[in-house]
Amino acid sequence: MAPFRLGVVGLGHRGIHMFELATTAFPETLQGVAICDNNEEILKATVEKFPNATPYNDFYEMLDKAELDVLLVETPAHCHAAFCVEGRKRGLFVFGEIPCVATLEEADALWQADANAPKGFFMTGANPNEWGFVEALYSYYKQGLLGKPYYMEAEYIHDCRYLWPSTPWRRTMYPITYCTHSLGPLLRITDEDLRQVSCMDTGAWVEGGENEHDLMTAHFHAPSGLVVRFTASFINNAGCGHHSYRVYGTEGYFERLSSRGQQKPITTFNSKKLYGFDKSTIVSIEEQRPEFEARSKNFGGHGGADFVLWYTFAQALKENGPAPISLKAGLRMTIPGIFARESAKQGGKLVDITYPWD
Ligand SMILES: NC(=O)c1ccc[n+]([C@@H]2O[C@H](COP(=O)([O-])OP(=O)(O)OC[C@H]3O[C@@H](n4cnc5c(N)ncnc54)[C@H](O)[C@@H]3O)[C@@H](O)[C@H]2O)c1
């Protein structure tokens, strides 16, 4: 089978990394044929790196001329959907960066475009879903070792000020809308959609700039009574690692705490259902998935999670689907953040969450 023809729109740090990873790790499945950025300087600077790919400064021209099979969307976080919608309307396999959409209108448009697409599928590029300790959490849950989760927490604490010069959009984004890294892993262990939210915004304290939102924290609610708390901060002096998670279940407890100074990240777990695990026990699993370690070690990218995303995507391409992380999964972990932002704008008012499939 000839490799699938891959084109990327958005040649920032992430776009270059993902395009390079896909085409060097899976050359028999993915051939990099086109690169696109509407910033001429960035495009020129990238051409040398990918001599076999045709450069475009116009997205539609790339779609019209490059005969793509697969579109990788790596534009800034607030503008993914229009590119993904166009790709799906043309029946391309679309690998979309997270968060999937920035507004509810975009969510509806992408949902419709995907449902009516002549062929192909949409893959959500939710790399944290593929971390080793997240896979461990999922495995404990599936085996009934945690029972029913009734309270879960996630934190994404990342001081992004060093990224402002290259990605100014990060400065004023509402951090609560960047919720896929946090809700994605937790939603793997519940079939329920989150249905209500109340969210608070600290506003700007650390730098005090206009339209900055240093930290936001939200409580989400699902119909069974499940509560999920999510805190996100992209301007802070915390200095800790980025991602923490806690899961309270009826039969056990799971915790992943990010690094703190000299203290490395730590994953602990206990279960009433597993002999010898009734007390909190350290689990020796990190971001890296042991089963992929040998193959992913030369490629890097979020502890090997980026490699796993492309691996599962390449397998799905060969089998013509389904997408390993579907559009629905992507919208379940994206849309709650949009409603959280609206709740924060109304001072924390409890708001109902709706989805395109309602
Ligand atoms: N999954 C992860 O772990 C992870 C990590 C980092 C970034 N991201 C996501 O990846 C995306 C890219 O992040 P980044 O840091 O590389 O951002 P960036 O701003 O550096 O890169 C985006 C690029 O898109 C280009 N662009 C914007 N509008 C365009 C258009 N209309 N046509 C063509 N090109 C256009 C810009 O010129 C820029 O080069 C973001 O959505 C971000 O949230 C995800």
Structural class: alpha/beta
Tell me the strand percentage band.
15-25%
For this entry, what is the oligomeric state of its chains?
single chain
Reading side by side through the largest sheet, how are the strands ordered?
Answer: 14-13-12-11-7-10-9-8-15
Predict the CATH topology of the largest domain: Dihydrodipicolinate Reductase, domain 2
CATH architecture identity of the largest domain = 2-Layer Sandwich
Element string (H = helix, E = strand)? EHEHEHEHEHEHEHHEEEEEEEHHHE
Helical stretch count? Answer: 11
Structural Rg? 20 Å
CATH superfamily caption of the largest domain: Dihydrodipicolinate Reductase, domain 2
Overall geometry comes to globular
Q: Look at the structure and give the mean pLDDT.
A: 97
Short description:
With 358 residues, the protein is α/β, with parallel strands linked by helices. It has eleven helices and 15 strands.
If you had to describe this structure to a student in words, what would you say it looks like?
30% of the residues lie in helices and 22% in strands. The chain is α/β, with parallel strands linked by helices and 358 residues long. It has 2 domains: 4-126 and 302-326, Rossmann fold, CATH 3.40.50; 129-295 and 334-352, Dihydrodipicolinate Reductase, domain 2 (2-Layer Sandwich). The strands form 2 sheets. The protein has a 9-stranded mixed sheet with strand order 14-13-12-11-7-10-9-8-15. A 6-stranded parallel sheet has the order 3-2-1-4-5-6, sandwiched between helices. It starts with a strand and ends in a 6-residue tail after the last strand. Bound molecules: nicotinamide-adenine-dinucleotide. The site of nicotinamide-adenine-dinucleotide (NAD) has 25 residues, from helix 1. Nicotinamide-adenine-dinucleotide is lined by residues 9-15, 36-39, 42, 59, 74-77, 79, 97-98, 125, 127, 166-167, 302.
